[in-house]
């Protein structure tokens, strides 16, 4: 599998390239936003995943993530030295699939990469249309509607919604949700990210996000959608 690595620190980039190649990944390295854009224009469909530094000399990794997500469903993982909620939430809202804060262990990064790739390889629901009043999900198109109006959701918000759709009426604990979203790499993920996704989905799907009736909180147990 081919990975686009965007990292301005050439020492870090070289080390990551070596580690990825040792794990049977091929890589293309870019050191700034401009060169990454040029590569994506010509080769976007050739990549299985993009590994992008958030802070780059001529811009931000957000720009690269936006380009990728507007044109494809290729996963994006951010490398960031900025470990604060605002930047993490912004990246996740743009559709990024995961983030890892520097300094990190290479084995941890490889586990996250493989986990994200497994999620993208999983088959969608057999049903093509799922109705959970007032929400309708078109799984073949990857679209979500509320009262007939399309609602824009990020890739991971959509995946979280599908988990609920697969378990209508069931109480799902936070651990169950994290295991299904993040697969076996759940131990590496900050639990706060789940809170972010729940909050964003409620803001988009609830009539009153402060008094949710679609994604219900079952105190001390988890969350439930539907009867």
UniProtKB/TrEMBL annotation:
Q: Which InterPro entries does the record cross-reference, listed alphabetically?
A: CheY-like_superfamily, OmpR/PhoB-type_DNA-bd, Sig_transdc_resp-reg_C-effctor, Sig_transdc_resp-reg_receiver, WalR-like, WH-like_DNA-bd_sf
Q: Name one GO molecular function term.
A: phosphorelay response regulator activity
Please give an example of a GO cellular component term from this record. protein-DNA complex
Which keywords does this Swiss-Prot/TrEMBL entry list? Answer: DNA-binding, Phosphoprotein, Transcription, Transcription regulation, Two-component regulatory system
Which locations, inside or outside the cell, does it occupy? Cytoplasm
Annotated Gene3D superfamilies: 3.40.50.2300, 6.10.250.690, Winged helix-like DNA-binding domain superfamily/Winged helix DNA-binding domain
Which BP terms does GO give this entry? regulation of DNA-templated transcription
The record's section on Pfam families has: Response_reg, Trans_reg_C
4-aspartylphosphate PTM positions: 53
**The protein's name:** DNA-binding response regulator
Q: Where is the Response regulatory domain?
A: 2-117
Its primary localisation, in coarse terms, equals cytoplasm
Q: Please give the superkingdom of this protein's source.
A: Bacteria
Q: Which residues bind DNA?
A: 127-227
Q: Which organism is it from?
A: Paenibacillus pectinilyticus
Q: Where are the transmembrane segments?
A: none
Q: Which intervals hold domain OmpR/PhoB-type? A: 127-227
